[in-house]
Specification:
Number of helices: 7
Helix content: 25-40%
Radius of gyration: 17 Å
Largest sheet: 9 strands, mixed
Number of domains: 1
Order of helices and strands: EHEEHEHEEHEEEEEHHH
CATH architecture: 3-Layer(aba) Sandwich
Number of strands: 11
CATH superfamily: Class I glutamine amidotransferase (GATase) domain
Shape: globular
Strand order of the largest sheet: 2-1-3-4-11-10-9-6-7
CATH topology: Rossmann fold
Length: about 250
């Protein structure tokens, strides 16, 4: 089987490792079925050929594509430049892609610079997601409940749907929760890999990064523990099942 290429954008080792383990677990992947690259630590390989992989999965991260370049740290620039460099080929070829959280920012910025902090940021917590009419017929969303809860927490969001994209999932607080470009390029604003334990880890790591007042951390951890969030991981599992190839 050709491996899945997993690109990680989190410079915090604990958060990156926890996210990687969650992607494997929720996607039904073994470590030997993937190639993992932490873009804060290593560049993309010279001569990277997408045909060597089944698909590309991009994780989340604390960066914002809409921030001015001068406000980004050298590591943030390195990470963003690396993942953005793949997007022209991915979208031109309609190559299988799943962008999680930061991934919708990467896709939306590449296609139309449609991501900003103007509207639709969501506090750390859960979002009431709903399938759109197009979402009900999408192959990755077959069998999903009409409404489901998903973990979110983001400072920027897609402001409009880029040309060529299909709107799959919406919520009252952030309309573009999941989109598809072409037939095989997907991105979610919510975290399809996250469960309560994983989000508790991230709350501890990012409590001083401006997502929420640090004194709210304990309340948010309690909220995560009480949340019933299971449906989103089915999307990641279906993506893996659909695009596994020899």
């Amino acid at each position: 089987m050709k491996p899945f290429l997993i690109l990680q954008l989190r410079p915090e080792t604990e958060a990156s490792d926890d996210e990687f383990a969650a992607i494997l677990r929720k996607g039904g992947l073994e470590a030997g079925e993937v190639v993992r690259i932490r873009l804060d630590q290593a560049p993309l390989p010279d001569g990277l050929d997408l045909e060597d992989y089944s698909a590309v999965i991009v994780g989340g991260g604390p960066g914002c594509v809409s921030d001015p370049v001068e406000k980004k740290s050298p590591v943030e620039k390195q990470i963003e430049d690396a993942v953005m460099s793949l997007m022209p080929e991915i979208t031109a070829r309609d190559f299988p892609f799943m962008g999680c959280c930061y991934g919708i920012g990467i896709l939306g910025h590449h296609l139309a610079k449609a991501v900003s902090k103007e509207n639709f940021s969501e506090a750390v917590g859960t979002s009431d997601c709903r399938l759109t009419e197009a979402g009900r017929s999408d192959l990755l969303l077959q069998g999903m409940p009409e409404r489901f809860e998903a973990f979110v927490g983001h400072k920027e969001a897609m402001q409009r749907l880029p040309e060529g994209c299909v709107h799959l999932v919406e919520s009252p607080t952030c309309p573009y929760q999941m989109i598809r470009y072409g037939e095989n390029v997907y991105a979610t604003q919510f975290h399809p890999e996250a469960d309560s334990d994983g989000f508790e880890v991230r709350i501890g790591i990012y409590k001083h990064r401006g997502y929420f007042p640090p004194e709210d951390a304990e309340r948010l951890v309690a909220m995560c523990r009480a949340a019933d969030v299971h449906a989103p991981e089915r999307i990641l599992r279906k993506f893996v099942e659909r695009y596994r190839r020899g």
